[in-house]
Amino acid sequence: MHEDSAWAVSTGFVRVVPPNAVMRGTLSASQPQRILIEGTFSGRMLLPGSTVLIAAAADVDAELIEASHVIVHGRSTGLIRSGELEIGATANVEGSLQYATNLVVAAGAILRASIHGPSAVTVPIAATTPNSTDR
Amino acid sequence: MRDLSTPDAPGLPYGMAFEGEATINGNYTLKGRLMGTLRLPASATLFVAGEGSAEGSLQAGNAVIAGEVEGTIDCGAGAVEFEPSARCTVRVKYRELTIARGAAVDAELQQTSATDA
pTM of the prediction? Predict the structure, then answer.
């Protein structure tokens, strides 16, 4: 997992909450974005289809973060609802984590959270078992 | 006109919106939509790009406006520049003001002097 802001910017992340910034409110997007959080944010991020990277120095107090991919290297409290969720080694996460496809937690991360994984199997196992049609 | 929207420049990209209060410690570019309050330090410049818009209160050292703004712009110690594409209904506090030909600006203006700042 990458945690360097320079790498993030070089790969197309936009510094929406730059270092030492303080933002309180609601961030939303009408199209997929790659969003870098380096400062302090509190409120809601309604970003379906987007990737959110919370940098190591960032401090996020989220009523809700909703995105397709969330990467946390800094401090985060609150509810994160994401398709894919990565928690880096420097992360300090407290709250509720909901993910639909993948969850990765690096060694060293501080995690005080409830975790809710994929809640439903969309394709019945029997239908995808090769032998099931041979019987 | 100057372009502050370099790839690594902090800002709100096109297609994004922020509603609330923000204090940024440096230059900032709005290509998306801001509703609320945005404060930058006296040393920083706010750039509202052509595709950007803001509704509310903007405070910065200097401001370059190429998009839409409705509300207040406080650059009492610096310069405000309206680009030809600017479309604004604003109250403006400034020390230096530039309005380019083609800009659509409906404004109440308050000029400050060096002793005011």
Answer: 0.88
